[in-house]
Write a structure and sequence with these properties.
The protein is built from 16 helices and 12 strands. The chain is of the alpha/beta class and 430 residues long. Helix 1 packs antiparallel against helix 3 and helix 9 crosses helix 10. The termini are far apart. It binds pyridoxal-5'-phosphate. The site of pyridoxal-5'-phosphate (PLP) has 15 residues, from helix 4 and helix 5.
């Protein structure tokens, strides 16, 4: 049989970012993944229709459920992450909220840390509470035993971000996963800021990874998307998840026990939440993501390199009180960064300006290349004031605890020439 690069998992990350999960021979030879802009697909014969609906055939029937463009993206992401299955959704928040609903039912609890993205905090603390799912937040996200103390027989997952915002705090993932697994609890990681190029949480024991693909995966600030990836192998039948026991019994014959062991979470996520809650990713978005993932390794290298240079520049600047970036030796997370981020620490950093809110405002208004906006993960550099934007609805005490002080500014360092970015910040600070 001819060599098929698209399924060779021994290839390097950059090679798989270009080839994994897509076989042109099955798509008219088109080297670029085609955009299947259609609402529905021919079912073929009666028996195939049954196979599509029972789940023994992965093919497309109605585009909300499965689309071949999205399938190429999902296979590529599963490969890059080192997982067994992935699912594209309409936004990062759709990926996160659907994941949490797949994990927990009324009466269940999810443990999370306090430094989560604001949308995730609202889902866990407010929205799901109306449906009986309780989000419990640990006070000290750096302390693994603080998570352990919160575990009860109702716990269905521990949910963390691999890089917090805006402090860029890191969690000791390997220790967290080991502790959680000792209790039969899966670990879900929002890995939006590092992407699988800089960190693959499955290598440290995580079970599910979620992304806002809007950010570095998309990379150009031109789409909204989310992706969920499953490692496979977690024991969903360990007694904590009656909903998965039910799903297993109902689908083991059609889907097969071996496949369910590898991708039961994703199967149920697609079959229940994507299919009937409907947060579908359009195939044009999947196409744009496939395109931008082709250059993910070189973009993340440059993002990280530029961010480190800017962090070092700011650390030596007389107008700056402190800089938060785990790539700096002064960071309390530097030791964790050396273990988990040998290739670089991505491009989010924050710093406190001397002179309080007034000085911070002046910097925001004087920068010329940095854009004043709240997005992250664009190729173009951005600056924001978390206390009055991303953390606007967070109560003041929690805002302070999250490191969003009145004089804190957050930078997302883009792919421009570092010397231009440094000159821009220098003139604004002066
Ligand atoms: C932006 C973001 C989200 C939400 O993603 P959307 O694509 O905007 O829905 C979730 N988590 C993190 C860490 C984010 O930065």
């Amino acid at each position: 049989m001819a060599y098929e690069a698209y399924k060779d998992e021994s290839l390097g990350f950059a090679t798989r970012a270009l080839h994994a999960g897509y076989d042109p021979a099955r798509h008219g030879g088109s080297k670029t993944v085609p955009i299947y802009q259609t609402a529905a697909f021919q079912l073929g014969d009666y028996d195939r229709c049954i196979r599509l609906f029972e789940g023994s055939d992965n093919g497309p029937s109605y585009a909300r459920f499965v689309n071949p463009t999205n399938q190429a993206l999902e296979a590529r992401m599963a490969s890059l992450e080192g997982g067994n299955a992935a699912l594209g959704l309409a936004s990062g928040m759709a990926a996160i909220s659907n994941t949490l609903m797949n994990l927990a039912c009324a009466g269940d609890e999810i443990i999370a840390n306090k430094t989560l993205y604001s949308g995730s905090t609202v889902v866990l603390s407010d929205i799901l509470a109306d449906y009986g799912i309780v989000g419990r937040f640990v006070d000290d996200p750096d302390d693994i035993s603080a998570y352990e103390e919160m575990i009860t027989e109702k716990t269905r997952a521990i949910y963390v971000e691999s890089m917090g915002n805006p402090l860029v705090n890191l969690v000791d993932l390997e220790a967290l996963c080991k502790m959680a697994h000792a209790h039969g609890v899966p670990v879900v990681v929002d890995n939006t800021v590092p992407t699988p190029y800089l960190l693959r949480p499955f290598e440290y024991g995580a079970d599910i990874v979620v992304y806002s693909a809007t950010k570095y995966l998309g990379g150009h600030g031109n789409l909204i998307a989310g992706i969920v990836v499953e490692k496979g192998g977690f024991d969903w039948l360990n007694g904590r998840f009656p909903q998965f026991e039910k799903f297993y019994e109902a689908s083991k014959e059609a889907i097969g026990e071996e496949t369910l062991k590898k991708e039961m979470f994703t199967r149920r996520l697609r079959g229940r939440f994507l299919m009937d809650m409907g947060a579908h990713m359009t195939p044009i978005t999947a196409f744009l993501l496939l395109q931008s993932i082709e250059t993910l390794p070189i973009r993340m290298d440059r993002h990280s390199e530029n961010a480190l240079r800017i962090a070092q520049f700011l650390e030596g600047h007389p107008q700056v009180e402190r800089v938060n970036y785990p790539g700096l030796e002064s960071s309390p997370y530097h030791a964790l960064a050396q273990k988990y981020f040998p290739l670089g620490c991505s491009s989010m950093l924050s710093f406190d300006v001397k002179g309080g809110l007034e000085a911070a405002k002046r910097v925001l208004e004087k920068v010329r290349i940095f854009d004043y906006m709240v997005n992250i993960g664009d190729a173009k550099s951005m600056i924001t004031h978390p206390a009055s934007s991303t953390h606007f609805f967070v109560p003041p005490a929690a805002r302070e605890a999250a490191g969003a002080h009145e004089n804190t500014l957050r930078l997302i360092v883009g792919l421009e020439d570092a010397k231009d970015l440094i000159a821009d910040l220098d003139q604004a600070l002066r």
